[in-house]
Amino acid sequence: MSYEQILYDVRDRVATVTLNRPQALNAWTDVMAEEVWQAMHAAERDDGVRVIVLTGAGRAFCAGGDVTAFGSEHPRALLDKLPRAFDFSRRPDYQSRAAWFPAIAKPIIAMLNGATAGLGLVHALFADIRFAAEDAPITTAFARIGLASEYGMAWALRHVVGHANAADLLLSGRKVRGAEALRMGLVSQVHARDELAAATYAYARELAESCSPRSLRVLKQQLWALPFQGLHEAVAADSIAMLEANVCDDFQEGKRAFLEKRPPRFTGR
User: Fold this and answer.
1) Phi, psi of 61 (to 5 degrees)
2) Burial (CB count within 10 angstroms: exposed 0-12, middle 13-18, buried 19+), residue 36
3) How buried is residue 85: exposed, middle or buried, by Cβ count under 10 Å (0-12/13-18/19+)?
4) pLDDT for 12-63, tens place per residue?
5) What residue numbers bound the domain in which 77 lies?
6) Is the dihedral of CA 165, 166, 172, 174 positive or negative?
7) Are residues 25 and 137 in the same domain?
8) Does residue 267 lie within any of the structural domains?
9) Model-level pTM greater than 0.70?
């Protein structure tokens, strides 16, 4: 498939989805939203892909929604927009317009190579892991332009950094970078801008080469189910998942590889 506003590439079992409007700091558009959806699902279907990296071209990850489109559509029409056909095999909480990354059955790493604001931060928060350039400014932005939190950002931000930090970032709209973002838990790793890609892809390749694709899929599902489970439910679900894992091909291969002291050859089954 050809794309207008993103780039899509696969190598070393890692798919890269690059937001590609650098002249507009990768501001999010409806075209970009459709293309990211198509690319993520293509990566999910591709057995040659085990990890997905989402990043931006140029000096920004995504500086938010495209302001040139603000006000071009009546609010009633926006409210009436529905997500794609409802998929009953996936949790309904993760089928909305911008909160569907958790439903993708492969790990998504957001590589924040530069400015990450508003809707750009929404998408970063619904990725599984975030790596950032140490000088990349990260901001919710909404309070400073008269908007409300959108597409579940408040929920996701509170889930990632806790209530106090989420309140700080949302109410102030201030920018955080590097060490502060790392301290909050907003990102998992921080690197110099010119070292970020190497570090991110080294991590992605380690997941792709050393970890069971089936385990990655199940563990991701377990993590994103937790906000809706009590402890008893989580323990019960974990028990079922572990029993199923014990009879899967990847576990048998993992045991053989351990005993034979060699790298595992996982199939994802």
Assistant:
1) -80, -70
2) buried
3) exposed
4) 999 999 999 999 999 999 999 999 999 999 999 999 999 999 999 999 999 9
5) 6-208
6) positive
7) yes
8) no
9) yes
